[in-house]
Amino acid sequence: MESTGASTYGFQAEVKQLLHLMVHSLYSDREIFLRELISNASDANDKLRFEALGKPELMADGGELRIDVDIDKEQRSITVSDNGIGMSRDEVVEHLGTIAHSGTARFLERMSGDQRKDSQLIGQFGVGFYSSFIVADSVEVLTRRAGTAPEEGARWTSDGQGEFSVEPCTKADRGTTVRIRLKQDADEFLDPYRIRGLIRKYSDHIAFPVTMRQEGGEAEGRETVNRAKALWTRPRNEIEHDEYVEFYKHISHDFTEPLAWTHNKVEGKREYTCLLYLPGAAPFDLWNREAPKGVKLYVQRVFITDGATQFLPLYLRFVRGVVDASDLPLNVSREVLQQDPNVAAIKSALTKRVLDMLDRLAKDEPEKYRTFWREFGAVLKEGLAEDPANRERIAELMRFSTTRSAGDEQDRSLDDYLRDAGTDQDVIYYLQSDSLGAARSSPHLEIFDDRGVEVLLMTDRLDEWVMQFLDKYRDKPFRDVARGEIDPKKLGGEQPVETEANKEDRNLLKRVKRVLREQVDEVRFSERLRESAACLVIGEDDIGYQMRELLKAAGQEAPRTVPSLELNARHPLIERMRREGDDTRFELLSRLILDQATLSEGRQLEDPAAFVKRLNSLLVELGAPPES
Ligand code: ADP
After folding, report:
1. How far, in Å, are 275, 312, 444, 562 from residue 603 at the CA level?
2. For residue 86, how far is its CA from the centre of ligand 1 (angstroms)?
């Protein structure tokens, strides 16, 4: 193809899908296209100002950074122009033809076809430039990278149907102009008053002037429509709730309202301003290690970088916001950020602010706090390992499903637990399991249910790992109910009269152990069981099942854990085994007992087919049903 002609490209498959979904599910919010375009324009201006720190010549021509919005009623078009960084031809093809987020395909699979739900999800994803197609028949982008010649411009066009073309063009000014030709039913966006209103509503906080042509009178000039002052630099008491919300949407590309924010100007030895938000919904890629994290860093109002990860610990990676530091050098690099003692001090102060914000939310707005915990609780917990200095505070913020929770929600705090446990109970009990269902029916809970002792039910992927770092809360130690021996005297309630295991009993234990010698460590009578016949118990220091899975996923082989088998002496099946004289049948019963102890914890059997065979051989022994 001629290098001077137009080239046609197909959109990446994900873009096509996104375009289709967006046009359908965001129709009723379609005005947001303007916010997205102004937001991109503002980012482009920020980027140029940053690059110009090292190369002032980039800003030599083209005037002050600004954003212009124009309406052409005859052409039925609306135009958003910036004089920011612009794009080279390669960049246009790359940026306006693909989606950069990794994991997009997986995200799109979650779309349900239900308009309301999908629009929520798409909102979380961040719609950006492509949202212009909700109102456009066609879109034209003229752009020129700052520092290149006017002839090096590029013209991108598309009707959003699957293809776009790019051709060289000459563009007098640096930066980007996006021209949208409106659909027939989008007349409302040709009304200057409507557009002014939208700019004030969505883009008031943008730090650059957003201008429009003056209306009425003879005046021919342009006027600035927004306030054009970086939001975080204004005093707190002068900022409206909605302004904070809009600013959040601008920096986070998230449509959902934030749950809370904290805005502080710190003066004195270290001067900085921070505005940190708690999002209302987890981004679709929260668990993706390469996903964008960190805050927007400004130094004296000059944008430096988007993903400054040095200002918050990893376990607070869901926090979005801005830090504007006065004492960092403008040419601050990643290395400088890593070593600068100012940065470390700001990080620990910001961590406190976020934990304070969470405290406040938990106390004052418990409903919102529940949302927070549902979305981000599993991430916050990582802090137990990452941030020993704040361990107690993090533990205080944790919420659990317990044997007393009403529904399936993690709704009980450790303070709730201790308050209801009373002063006699000197231990906090918990159980780990793969699912809440399995946890609730675990045989390990029987004695606790019997005595009315609450047990925390932990089912998050990293629970076993993080609990290693939390051995006490308010001086009470934690205790895994599936480990070691349980002393029923410590659980209060009525104590059954215990009899010394007689000789026959000890014989039974020995016989079972002989059959299962490879699979189990000790065979003993249980203090835990009420209903079930048997359960498996691991040692205090053994590696648990969840940890084993984690290690396996990381390609490491964990040492084998050999559990002990506990039998319920009062269970009819165990009674039956006592009297079983036939060695073959005794072996069969012993193996079945082990199988069911494994199954009742919600775990897989190593050899399910062998289990089915054993069970069937017993069922066949039942013989034919009685004649009726
Ligand atoms: P996002 O802004 O979330 O990255 P968009 O789809 O809105 O996603 O934009 C994709 C990319 O296109 C941006 O990351 C940016 O590199 C580029 N881009 C969009 N608008 C502009 C603009 N006005 N000036 C320069 N680059 C732009």
Report:
1. 46, 38, 14, 15
2. 10
Predicted confidence band at 595 (pLDDT cuts at 50, 70, 90)?
A: very high
7-227 and 399-621: identical CATH topology: no
**Calpha distance 272→539 (Å, rounded):** 51
- The structure's pTM equals 0.82
CATH 3.30.565.10 assigned to domain 7-227? The reply is: yes
CA distance 507 to 513: 10
The two three-digit tokens of residue 99, written as one number: 């989606």
Q: Whose CA is nearest to atom 12 of ligand 1?
A: 95
Q: Is there a contact between 259 and 278 (Cβ–Cβ < 8 Å)? A: yes
pLDDT, tens digit (0-9, with 9 covering 90-100), for 510-566: 999 999 999 999 999 999 999 999 999 999 889 888 888 888 888 888 888 899 999
The CATH code that applies to domain 236-377 is 3.30.230.80
> Cβ neighbours of residue 422 under 8 Å, at least 6 residues apart?
none
For residue 539, which of 490, 480, 487, 604 has the smallest C-alpha distance?
480
pLDDT confidence tier of residue 2, bands split at 50, 70 and 90: very low
Q: Is residue 253 in contact with ligand 1, taking CB distance under 6 Å?
A: yes
Q: Which residue is associated with the tokens 């079930």?
A: 532
| Closest among 222, 177, 179, 198 to 84, alpha carbons compared | 177
Report the separation in Å between the CA atom of 449 and the middle of ligand 1, taken as the mean of its atom positions.
57
Q: Is the C-beta atom of 251 inside 6 A of ligand 1?
A: no
Which tens digit of pLDDT belongs to each residue from 426-478?
999 999 998 999 999 999 999 999 999 999 999 988 898 899 999 999 999 99
Domain boundaries, the chain: 7-227, 236-377, 399-621
pLDDT category at 506 given cuts 50, 70, 90 is confident
Measured from the CB, is residue 469 less than 6 Å from ligand 1?
A: no
Domain boundaries 399-621, corresponding CATH code: 1.20.120.790
Binding site membership of 526 for ligand 1 (Cβ less than 6 Å): no
